[in-house]
Amino acid sequence: MTPENVHEIKKSLLEIFDDKSIEEIKADDLENYAVIRYGTPENFYIDIIGRIGKVATYRDVSQDIEVYEISGVKIPVCGIETLIKIKQTVRPKDRMDLEFLREKLKRRQKRG
User: Fold this and answer.
1) In this model, does residue 24 exceed pLDDT 80?
2) CB 32 within 8 A of CB 25
3) Where are the domains of the chain?
4) What residues have CB less than 8 Å from 4, skipping those under 6 apart?
5) pLDDT, tens digit, for every residue of 58-71?
6) pTM for the whole structure
7) 38 contacts 22 by C-beta, under 8 angstroms
């Protein structure tokens, strides 16, 4: 993740949350750690993902983006097909997620 991307993430978070700790997020953190977890003042977490191991790169994920709009804010998220690829691990939680995602993809394909 580039320093410019991190700057944009911080800028966006600061538009939503009045929280000085956002300034502590650094591009180096996302190079050293795959995920940085930001705890919001509203007591929920936002995971900022810099990379997804060796399974998927940003370029891979950026090819499969779905955009949802919530309260007028467009939010890009990883698409189902890429999530399925990422969740193919041995962890029990990922297996449960994988089952859910495959079913969701089937339903979506039936709807056309």
Assistant:
1) yes
2) no
3) 1-51, 53-112
4) none
5) 777 888 999 998 88
6) 0.57
7) yes
